[in-house]
Amino acid sequence: MRICALSTALMLLAGVTAGAAEIKYYPVPAGARPHDVAPAPDGTVWYTGQGAGHLGRLDPATGKVEIIPLGKGSRPHGVIVGPDGAAWVTDSGLNANVRVDPATRAVQVFPLPKEFPDANLNTGTFDKKGIYWFTGQNGVYGRVDPATGKTDAWKAPKGRGPYGIATTPKGDVWYVSLAGDHLAEIDPVSGEASVIDPPRPGVGPRRIWSDSKGMLWVSLWHSGEVGRYDPTTKTWQTWQINEARFGCYSVYVDDKDTVWLTDFASNAIVRFDPATGKFERFPSTRKDASVRQMLGRAGEVWGAESGTDRLVAIRY
Questions:
Q1: pTM greater than 0.90
Q2: Quick one: CA dihedral 135, 139, 145, 151, positive or negative?
């Protein structure tokens, strides 16, 4: 573990005001290539330093970054904050899920079963019973019981592609498959995944999030759209987010049920109001920002600019 004090001149810094939103950028150590972010209840922000093999923790008040090594060969992808307050990481390099204690920084590793030697782990979520679920792009999804440390894994019904994963307010767990081009609901008891077709073949569902009503919002990478799936009526609705018709990467729904997306084609974070159908764009101040995933807390959303070694916050 080490602390990096980034200079105040470089830090808090590029504050930009856009409409009723304020945008700020926070540098992280060069070469980190931050992939996912997870704002913590104490005001700090976790991020995965995929390029450097560590977990980072930013204090937005000071700009200081704490580095927590995860182990030799680490290549972390996703990070979320669990109900236990810890950071939970999907680490493709270790082929394991990793828990980092927020107080002691102790690192606990949960390897996948030997039958799944190269899962290419992607993203995690907790269900309402405290079970951690995860995806792996090489055709894997599974769960970890934090109470026992037991890990179960299954082969995805359509092979390669499981990517984003999310839990609804009711506790249902859904994942999307980019290469497999589908949405799936996981049975919490049997682990069986039930496949739902996308709105059209070939759209490439990449990330998923639920709003407060249980509607599932999905970023459609290949078509540059955001989709909404209603599990009750089993119907889709889609909205085009750009003229390029590709590159809708992440999706996150905030506490107001506003939908946040990242658009690689226009190098921007996008805010979408489902009530009006209007989009608002927040372009990065640097080229090729490549914001992978977004998460947030009341009044702010966060992303990681993997192409610029910065985190970005939009406060609204």
A1: yes
A2: negative
Please give the structure tokens belonging to residue 143.
């769960």
Task: Identify the pLDDT of residue 291.
Answer: 98
Closest CA to 114 of 132, 133, 140: 140
Name the token pair of 258: 């506003």
Phi, psi at residue 17, to the nearest 5°? -105, 130
Residues of the chain with pLDDT under 50: 5-14
Return the pLDDT at 17: 56
How far apart CA 7 and CA 18 sit, in angstroms, is 25
Sheet with 216-220: strands ordered across: 205-210, 216-220, 225-230, 235-240
Distance CA 281, CA 153 (A): 39
Cβ contact 5:14 at 8 Å: no
Which residues sit opposite 109 in a β-bridge? 98
Cβ-based burial of 1 (10 A; exposed 0-12, middle 13-18, buried ≥19) = exposed
The sheet carrying 278-283 orders its strands as: 248-253, 259-263, 268-273, 278-283
Whole-angstrom distance between the N-terminal and C-terminal Cα of the chain?
33
Q: What is the pLDDT of residue 11?
A: 40
